[in-house]
Amino acid sequence: MSNTLASMASIGFTKAQAVRRALTGFIAACSHDFSLQEVPLNEAVKVPLIGAAAANADVTPAVDASQGSDTVVTTVDVKITKSRKNTFFVTGEDTKLINRMGYANWFGMRIEQSMAKLIAEAEADLALEAKNLAGWAVGVQGTDPFATSHNILNKSFRIFEENGVPMDDVSCILQPVYAESLRNLNYLYKINEGGDGGDLLRQGIMGKLVGHNIRSSAAVVTHTKGTVSAITTTGAAAGLFVLPVSGGTFVAGDPVSIAGITDRKYVASGPASGGNLTLNGELFKAAPASAAVTIEAASHIPNIILHRRALALAMAMPAKPAGGDKADEVMVYGDGKTGLAFEVARYRQYMQASYEVRLNWGVKGVEPQAMGQLIA
After folding, report:
1. What was the pLDDT predicted at 47?
2. DSSP structure class, residue 319
3. Cα 55–57–61 angle (5° rounding)?
4. Residue 235 pLDDT
């Protein structure tokens, strides 16, 4: 079995606590669970979800306190779909040069870089899953949602209310350019009215706005749309997920506009099949017969608004054979800021040592009604 990488434990742990330099809005906003167990590729990890609290009850004096409501632990299976590593090696000659700047400092920074690469990939996976599994959408392609006000957040707030989603842990994850646009709204800088002690003005900290935790992520990238021309529907009742259409090429993540429904758009789960387009989220209102069905005029930026329970991230250590592999030292480093943890292994070789920073993970959109696109 591999030994513990004790000599570097304190260095790696310190750097892991400071590794969050990239914009990781999705990792911070989703449900996630880390298992120290070794989970192989394509196996599932159960991620716990927080359910709603029970109804309030009257306080009634009695000999003993009442038992209270049952606690129901809800979990979702998230398949581990990636087993990834970031590797570097050091020769004896390298070590001589590195020692001049301090080997411990260099080693810590090198591990930090490897962690950042893996974090960025997991963040991108979450962004893609959220875009493709969102249940609804607001906004217009090519239009800055915060050009003049933050009012579009009131619209998403209303959709959460109508869908029965609590606003206790909702995040709005923006591409940095739109986070900048939101910060440019002058009225948000009024220290005497904002009640935030001037954090936005002094430090650029947005905090919470209309119930949304404002976050940024560089993983919000352009969605390449499908094509729809002169498509209509025969209509569908409220509560249905299937919309009959007369044609069109859709892809997962396409925002779908239905004539006669102006309060929101819906998101396609993928291509239409057998004349039916399946939506991620159920219709809140009935789709009228002979209504036109369109998608955005051009590819769009899918900023994301979600409740924490809508998107899940599962992480585990890569599985090794019985008795271990050739690694002579292994250590697990936890990152307190993102919730991610990494396994670092050293492999002694001829006149050099190779280091692997590695992690298994998977992502899953759990509740489309609690997740939407903010189109730009």
Report:
1. 72
2. P
3. 160
4. 92
pTM of the full structure: 0.84
What's the rounded Cα separation, in Å, for the pair 6 and 344? 11
The candidate with the shortest Cα–Cα distance to 341, out of 353, 327, 358, 328, is: 358
Maximum C-alpha span of the chain? 77
What are the CA-CA distances from residue 211 to residues 64, 169, 178, 188 (Å)?
39, 8, 18, 15
Calpha distance 246→267 (Å, rounded): 17
The one-letter amino acid at 204: G
Note the pLDDT tens digit of each residue in 30-69.
988 776 677 778 888 777 666 666 788 889 898 888 877 7
What's the rounded Cα separation, in Å, for the pair 73 and 33? 14
| CA pair distance 265, 255, nearest whole angstrom | 6
- Give the domain ranges of the chain: 3-44+77-132+309-364, 137-221+302-308, 224-299
Q: Which residue has the tokens 């050091």?
A: 90
User: pLDDT tens for residues 168-203?
Assistant: 999 999 999 999 999 898 887 765 455 555 555 444
Render the burial of 242-275: b for 16+ CB within 10 Å, e for the rest. bbbbeebebbbbbbbbbeebeebbbbbbeebeee
End-to-end CA distance of the chain: 52
What CATH architecture applies to the domain 224-299? Beta Barrel (2.40)
